From TrEMBL:
Topology in membrane: Multi-pass membrane protein
Listed name of the protein: Amino acid transporter transmembrane domain-containing protein
Signal peptide: none
Boundaries of every Amino acid transporter transmembrane domain copy: 32-411
Length: 420
């Protein structure tokens, strides 16, 4: 309650404090992340591990489900713009939970925080599962000894990966993380090129031509499509970090167009190559002896290493801001290290990459990326509640989001339970 009262006081007195500061203090040079660096961070958040499972999603839903990928992309781009407009309602709004609090008070902040942080946390878990699966394919029968205990296979690689990503989580500056993000964006494009090479040059071929539409697999397919565009939890943080926040709408457009081209290309190529035989990660289908396959898998391994820090940044920042020692560097490192350790434990407990991704997409991503932005915007903008095209679009997104969320969540949980 004390935290809520502090936030409430900040919002109500912001205008006076800011005006006083502007009079008393000399102007400082504008600081923040540039347009291009923000694009790299945004692309890194959007073009995540979903690119490996997008062919599997297409295989689940059939060729016509590809239309749903583009529809989900447009809807999520639009709700990203709604978040940007919500931020314009008050200068102290810096994060997604701030938007929830401005719209619905303390309860709104709590609801947004729960969905946002759980989503980001599980995405970080997915990164570790991905690393374990692909490293185990490259180096089967590998084992490590830790304190006299022998750890084999995927579990060993999950732990090894956590040690590699740990130092990147200690970086606080989004401007510095942009350099890491640039590597992740490059890795995503290289991966698509490698998959094309496997099909066109290494004689795997693009010969599969399976079902046009598969209704049974549609819930899993659309849930995975939603997962691919689950960057909304990071968007407000990226926007508030910019030198010129006005340009963030252009950042969103660049990020969504680029990532959708990447996703669509990967989905079509993977489905043409392996059809209904696709596994939850397309790299697990590739012929291991080919050099292009090894490059693809190594690139895949680089991808999560560059994304883990940017995805977990909002979680660690929120924890640090509630701490009494928020400016302590040693406490910051301790908090970030504890977060990495916890994701390792979860990754070792629930190693079902595809179905966990579908659950995140249907329950958490749909809520955080479609439902909450619409509800917050309607609450903060009275003009939007008047009958018109904008209201019709927002209501349509809410109805579609609820349907995807209910059906997809039920299906994904059922699959996870069946495989436990």
């Amino acid at each position: 309650m004390w935290v809520y009262e502090c936030h409430k006081m900040d919002f109500t007195k912001a205008g006076k404090l800011e005006s006083q500061n502007e009079v008393q203090q000399p102007q400082q040079p504008t600081k923040g992340t540039s347009f291009f660096r923000t694009c790299f961070n945004g692309l890194n958040a959007l073009s995540g591990v979903g690119i490996l499972s997008i062919p599997y999603a297409l295989a689940q839903g059939g060729w016509l489900s590809l239309l749903l990928l583009f529809l989900v992309a447009v809807l999520c781009w639009y709700t990203g713009l709604l978040l940007r407009r919500c931020m314009d309602t008050h200068p102290l709004i810096k994060t997604y939970p701030d938007i929830g609090e401005r719209a619905f008070g303390y309860k709104g902040r709590a609801i947004v925080s729960v969905f946002m942080y759980v989503e980001l946390y599980l995405v970080a878990v997915e990164f570790l599962i991905l690393e374990g699966d692909n490293l185990d394919k490259l180096f089967p029968n590998t084992a490590f000894k830790v304190a006299g205990l022998k750890i084999r296979g995927k579990q060993a690689f999950v732990m090894l990966t956590s040690l590699i990503v740990l130092p990147t989580t200690w970086l606080k500056s989004l401007a510095l993380l942009a350099y890491v993000s640039a590597g992740g964006v490059l890795a995503s494009f290289i991966l698509v090129i490698c998959i094309f090479w496997v099909g066109a040059v290494d004689k795997v071929g693009f010969h599969e031509n399976d079902s046009v539409l598969n209704w049974k697999g549609m819930p899993i397919a659309i849930s995975m499509f939603a997962f691919c565009y689950c960057g909304h939890a990071v968007f407000p943080t990226l926007c508030s970090s910019m030198k010129d926040r006005i340009k963030f709408s252009k950042v969103l457009l660049v990020c969504f167009i680029t990532s959708t081209i990447n996703y669509g290309s990967m989905a079509v190529m993977g489905y043409l190559m392996f059809g209904e035989h696709l596994k939850s990660q397309v790299t697990l289908n590739l012929p291991i002896k080919k050099m292009s396959t090894k490059i693809a898998i190594y690139t895949t391994l680089i991808n999560p290493l560059t994304k883990y820090a940017i995805i977990t940044a909002p979680i660690t920042t929120a924890i640090e801001e509630t701490s009494l020692f928020r400016n302590s560097r040693s406490l910051s490192i301790l908090i970030r290290t504890a977060l990495v350790i916890s994701t390792v434990i979860v990754a070792l407990t629930i190693p079902f990459f595809g179905y966990v991704m579908a659950f995140i997409g249907s329950f958490l991503s749909v809520t955080a990326s479609m439902l909450l932005p619409c509800l917050c915007y309607l609450k903060l903008n009275k003009a939007a509640r008047k009958m018109g095209l904008e209201l019709i679009i927002i209501v349509a997104i809410l109805v579609a989001g609820l349907f995807i969320g209910v059906v997809g969540t039920f299906t994904s949980i059922k699959q996870i339970v069946n495989h436990l």
